[in-house]
Amino acid sequence: MNTAPGNTSVDKIPPPPPLPPPFKIQPTNYNLNYFNCEFCIMQRNDNITNAMWNSGHILLKYLEQSNNDYITEITNVIASKDTTSDMNKALEKYSMSDTVILELGAGVGHVGIAISLGLQPKEYIFTDYQTDEIRKNVIENMVMCDDKFDGDQNKFTCGNTKVNIVNVDWKHSPEICYNDSSVPDVLLCIDCVWISDLYIPLLNHILYLSELNPNLIIILAHEHRQQDSYKDFFKVLIDNNMIVRKIYDEDLVAKSPIVGLFLICKTKFDDKTRLME
After folding, report:
1. The whole model's pTM is what?
2. Domains of the chain, with CATH numbers?
3. Which helix (H) or strand (E) element contains residue 166?
């Protein structure tokens, strides 16, 4: 797999892709198929959080092409010659069936539904500040396979996967937001970096979750919308001893000139210069 080299400074963060043209959300139902699992997503047009964006599709196709061994790919991507045995240990291969995944800003829920149906992780936690649309789509597509649905429309089991839907507002303290949630192994951030006013609240949640699990692997899919949305966000991650790697477009089945896919994890290095190549 080809990946962008480590960052020697913020100036060497890969340049942002071009800004996309104006986009109008159309209300409709979409029939989707990922991991050979078919499902239907309802999309409204009254709020951008109630829409599907290209980043989710690109992420799902990446996981689809990587199959269940994508953790091994992440190991190869992040664990370069500059990393220590601690980092390699943190990125050991493990089965998706043993994985707890938490998604920030889950929107209409299509990414989590696809992963839950197709890859069957141990637990999938959908989070967003509005969860009505997530709940509708999750119940429509996943409750049918539930044998433990007891009327709680936020918690149930689909096959081997425990499903949890949680209201999370990034402006609230992360210590409060995840009290009743499992500690994730994988954190998904899909089109979460889009308003500069939300950078710090979002980063607070990402960094808090990485403190709960120092071995946390973060997969971030980012559609560039603001000229300042790139370096400012990644600079905070790097300043907090996070390793950031970008997946090259040539390694993606689905791609877009305005979408970047990044793999991120926490380093245990005290000397930040050792993060760099």
Report:
1. 0.80
2. 10-16+30-275 (3.40.50.150)
3. strand 161-167
